[in-house]
Structures are given as C-alpha cells and as structure tokens.
Amino acid sequence: MDDQELGFKAGDVIEVMDATNREWWWGRIADGEGWFPASFVRLRVNQDEPADDAAVRAGDRGAEDTGAEAQSSRDQMRTNVINEILSTERDYIKHLRDICEGYIRQCRRRADMFSEEQLRTIFGNIEDIYRCQKAFARALEQRFNRERPHLSELGACFLEHQADFQIYSEYCNNHPNACVELSRLGKLSKYVYFFEACRLLQKMIDISLDGFLLTPVQKICKYPLQLAELLKYTPPQHRDFKDVEAALHAMKNVAQLINERKRRLENIDKIAQWQSSIEDWEGEDLLVRSSELIYSGELTRVTQPQAKSQQRMFFLFDHQLIYCKKDLLRRDVLYYKGRVDMDGLEVVDLEDGKDRDLHVSVKNAFRLLCGATGESHLLCARKPEQKQRWLKAFAREREQVQLDQETGFSITELQRKQAMLNASKQQAAGKPKALSRPYYLTRQKHPALPTSLPQQQVLVLAEPKRKPSTFWHSISRLAPFRK
Hints:
Blueprint: E1 15-18, E2 24-29, E3 32-37, H1 49-58, H2 63-108, H3 116-123, H4 126-143, H5 155-161, H6 168-185, H7 189-201, H8 209-213, H9 215-232, H10 241-276, E4 293-303, E5 308-317, E6 320-326, E7 334-341, E8 345-349, E9 353-354, E10 361-362, E11 365-370, E12 376-380, H11 384-407, H12 413-428, H13 473-478
Helix pairs in contact: 1-2, 2-4, 2-9, 3-6, 5-10, 6-10, 9-10, 10-12
C-alpha cells in the first residue's frame, strides 16, 4: 500500500468523500482517510433492502404476491452482481491499456534509459495479460443479456478462459522483482520525473507506478469472490447455475495454483544454497530436475555383496533421492554419496524377516527397485512409523511429479542459473553455507478459499504461514558454518 492508500477489511463501512474519479475514491473510516479502489467496495443502495421490503409488504398482500416480490428481488440482486462484474472488467481493461500505452510504449522510446530486460523485470508479462483480458471481456459482453440482465449466462466464459488465467502465475511471481527494480529507480530523479510525465500524459490518477502494477495481482484473486456472489443469487433452476458453480471451483483452483507456483519458485534460491552446503557434490545440480523437497531423514542402507550396513541421511526431492554421509567428527557436515532416480522406480514394502536377495534379517525395510536397469536399494528405518512416513512420502513425490506435468510447472534455465549464482555469491561472501532453519522445505496444503465471502473482501496472493515440521529439526544441526 502507498502512504495515502486507505486500508480496510471486509464489512467496514467507508464514507466516500470524493468520487470524481471512477477507479479510485477518497474515503474516510474511523482510522483515517485515504484513496481506495472503487471496485473493491459496493455502495449501500438497496442491495440488501429489497428482501426486507418484500417481507414487510407481504403482510398486507397474499402469499402469491410475496413469492413474486421475492423472485423480483433475487433477479435484481443478480443483475447488480452481473453489472458489477462487467463494470469492473471494463475498468480493468482501461487500467491495463493505460499501463501498456502510457508507460511501456513511452519506456521503449527511451532506449537510453531502459533495456528490454529491464522492462521485462518491471512490467512482467502484463502485455500478454492485456491481450487475454480483452478477449475475455469481449466474451462477457457477448453473453450479457441487455434486455433482461439477470438471465445473462457468464459462467461459461470463465470456464472457456480458465487456462488463459494461468499466465497470471508468471506475473505474480515476477511482481516482487518489479517492486525492487522500481525502488532502485525511484532513487534517481530522472526516472521519477519520467514516470510522472507518463502518468500525466495518460491522464491517470495520482498513484505511483508500483501501485498500478499491483492491480493484476489483486484482480486474479477477486474473481472467486465475484463468482461466489453471483452463485449466491443464481437459483438452482437457472441455466447458468451449473456453469457458475463450476467456474467458481475453477477460479479457486487457478488462485491456488498461482500461490503454489509462487511458493515453489521462492524455494529455488534456498535449495541452491542447501546444495552448496554439501561437500564433494557430484553430477548435475539439483535444480536441473527438482524444485521441491518432499521428505528427509536418516535410514540404514544395506549394500551388496557383503550386506554392509551404512547410516546415511536421505533427502527426497521430486524426481530424485539424494543421500549423504555425516562427517565422523563434525556431525553437522554432510558429504554427497549418491542419488537415486525416482522416475520409473518401484517402491516395494518388505515384511520383517530375512531378505531373500541379501540373505540378511531386516526390520522396517523397503526396497527401491529400478525395472529398467535392475538396480536395487535396500533401506531400513528405525521404527515402523518412520517407515510408513517414508512410504507416504514416496507416494507424494509421484503425485507432485504428475501435478507438475499436468500444470506445466518447470524452472527455466535462467532461473536455475540465477539461483546457483546467488548461492555461490553467498558462499563467497563468507556467509553460512546453509540456512539455520529451512522452513521453506516443509510442505503444507494451501487453505482453500471459503465458499462464501463478502464481495468487498480483497485477497492478495501471499504464502500462508506454515507450522514448522518436526523432522526438519535435524537439518539445523546439519548446516555447516564456516568462518
């Protein structure tokens, strides 16, 4: 939020003091005054009164009139919500056009001030979003019934374009980088004057550029709220009911997918730092194939041919399992010992007793078997519950890989290189090679959006708080600190 922006929560009543601008109003609540987006609130004009009025009038008229009044009230409420969806969409399209034409076009004319890479950092893929939103807005207008608005069928539009909304993931992930770059440029007066000139030429309201660039992040989170409101006033017999219901579920999934991708991309720097803390690393970098740590812990590895037992620390990432050896004297130092490719691998749960291949007695054991190469790894946990946690972790790893394939999630070569460069810089600067408490490696499902939320509530994509996982307590002891 900017200094002059008004903060509020769902249910607050704001006194509007200046509404001359369609997009940003000046308002007052108990805590103070400031600008707030007009599209984030609704006016208290007969949106809740009609049902009450109908009930009062019903006392003087028959039950038949009561039903007609109630139906008319619901139709009016649905009309209000549809008009709000269309109105905010038109305003949003104008907002995107102002950014693309008022800022980006002017920036490209000043090659002496902005490189293409710099513009990509500041504006992300907002031009792609603009193109997709124009197509979506046209589809909404075509579905709008001007004569009888409450009969409009908008649900199908969201379902047809739900895949397009996934481009917001890239924008949301890049937005923090844009804020950092704008903060850096804001210290140089020529950029401050340039951005202000762009705003004035485009006749945009007095909000800084980073405030304008926050709107797409907020917009993608507002769709589930609008659809929840639309579903609330769509009777089950309405032709649009099933589509609106499906659209609400789809847009919630889009928001959750964006959240998850944001969290995963925030991990890659930390995973690169973790790799740099491992001594004698061999082979390709972790980030070439992996971006998530699923589980970790200590297991006994039984090797052929003498059935030798080795205590190793195992780290299960998507696509691969890394195992390391603790230093004999400094138990907080790990040495790389190998990896197991999880793709095409079969996890076999073994019963306690004598293993038929190695002819040794095993307990709490399971085998990792590669059908293509015949390679086999016999691993034993200390307790039955630890074994079960590992078996569940292997199942989660396969689910994660399948989900990534379905959603198209991947780390670009540039992102991987940048993460490894950041890790090497941190190590060269004499900082600890690993994090003291890598909470980022714990997993927790993102909370689903509630099925019913007030229309004026605004969600901003953010990583939810996570409870620290107990099995990662050991990692803090494994991080080597060097002077």
